[in-house]
């Protein structure tokens, strides 16, 4: 609840700060310095070699801030009215509540006319304005060790449904004596976000664009029931990719399939099991029924947003929009993998074959399946409620329906 109280304070402060703001000195040829906070170690070089060269009139200063400290430092800076950057790099999951405060630069004039160039849910802000767009969206896919499946004469069919995947998982269990898995379920918050991705892929969300509760209890319960049933059937490996034992299980081909986004999935497979190059491939998110629309779920993502009271609003706008130029789009591919901007296909090469995945164009394939709109309001509390309920459902302490009721009850009390 501390996070909510901070945001409430910021919302009140926002009125005072807006009232005393000089309002756009950068537009009038004022301050040309541009301070950018980022939590990514790969971003400073890209910003300095790309944006700074494209806009030499700006004095660019890039500051690395640990991802866990970004929101905290913003809250402190906004409360005190000083020590703030012109632009900040935010995890998508933390952006909803922050944007609701109204303390970020309005990018509606720049991004609004390009709305059709983005998939639903990629443009983010509050109910009054657009503040940014999601970069490296966490489109989920199913990563499979095709070679390991082939040893049992098993294969994932083209354009599969989840029923098809479950059938393959059952065949794998029978052929391996229950020692190989097509599904994983991590504990804690990662497990909550895994469930959330499955729920979102079916069109589910917890909050609407106005920050109002919009949960579909039946859909959430059905989704959680599907996942818990997989576990009861012995089709799920319990573990998380941050644990070395997870990668040992992949090396031993105990785990031969897992649902994950590009940043964690592709990156970590190539880093941790390079000797399995050529064995793995990406299956885009399966459909929930034959002929149904193919949509995936969100698991992560980030964005850059300008601060409303920056001394250099034009510089902040130029920086955000630079990411949609040819050079900026290529920089997104080079640093975070997925680009959620439809014209990118005509501007840069998205068909780059990845030899690790047998020459598959995983960036293009993964980005081709969008996720339904999802709004990360009240996320610390929402994630906490989901985490507790999902853990109870998997332990058997609550049925999936009871677990979802508990989530909604907590969210209604916020």
What fraction, in percent, of the residue positions are helical? 40-55%
User: Which oligomeric form is depicted?
Assistant: single chain
What is the correct CATH architecture of the largest domain? 3-Layer(aba) Sandwich
Gyration radius (Cα, Å) is 22 Å
Count of discrete alpha- or pi-helical segments spanning 4 or more residues: 17
- Given as residue ranges, the uncertain stretches (5+ residues, pLDDT < 50) are 1-28
Helix/strand/pairing category: alpha/beta
In percent terms, what proportion of residues is strand? Answer: 5-15%
What summary fits the major beta sheet? 4 strands, mixed
Mean pLDDT: 91
Organism: Phytohabitans kaempferiae
Signal peptide: 1-21
Keywords: Signal
Protein name: ABC transporter substrate-binding protein
Describe the structure.
The chain is α/β, with parallel strands linked by helices. The protein has two domains: 2-138 and 300-362, Periplasmic binding protein-like II (D-Maltodextrin-Binding Protein, domain 2), CATH 3.40.190; 142-295 and 378-412, D-Maltodextrin-Binding Protein, domain 2 (3-Layer(aba) Sandwich), CATH 3.40.190.10. It has helices spanning 2-20, 43-54, 70-80, 92-99, 108-111, 146-150, 162-176, 188-201, 217-232, 244-251, 262-272, 313-322, 326-335, 344-347, 362-367, 379-395, 400-412; strands at residues 33-38, 59-64, 87-91, 123-125, 130-133, 141-145, 183-185, 236-238, 257-260, 280-284, 302-306. The strands form four sheets. It has a four-stranded mixed beta sheet. A hairpin with a 4-residue loop joins strand 4 (123-125) and strand 5. The longest helix has 19 residues, at 2-20. Mean pLDDT is 91; it is low at 1-28.
